[in-house]
Amino acid sequence: MEPVLEDNRVRLDEDVYVYPAGLKTDSALSRKIFSDLAPSMFNEDELARISDLLWRPPNHRVTLDFTNPEHIYHLYCARADLRDAQAEDPYAIYGAAAPVVNTLAYYEERANLSDLQQEILDRKLRNEPNASIASSINARFGKSYNENYISTIFR
Fold first, then answer.
1. Domain boundaries defined on the chain
2. Does the predicted TM-score (pTM) go above 0.70?
């Protein structure tokens, strides 16, 4: 099901609200929100809708919040499960999950992770053990991180 904008909140299916600015989809408003923003790109109605999306705190029982580190962590952990293993492209993600994963990728690209942080993220997403990651990171970047610190950085 395509995410829809309703009451100035973006909804995924019928039960999940997505904050702070909804999902990256093919809608005209989404294309504007997830591009290089400039206020002149929006009319007054769109600016009001965006303001509502960004400044109204989540107050729904089921919410996906891209500003919540726990939500981001769980999305990364679930990302592989969202893939369609039976599809022609086993890495393809279809349906309502695709905009969720695309939105996660959008924020990751703009996080400006250092090379060290990106390597830890990539290796954690491949389910490599913390000891292996720490050993490699310490040798490559001249650090002395222990296994527990790798988990802390990842989260």
1. 4-109, 115-154
2. no
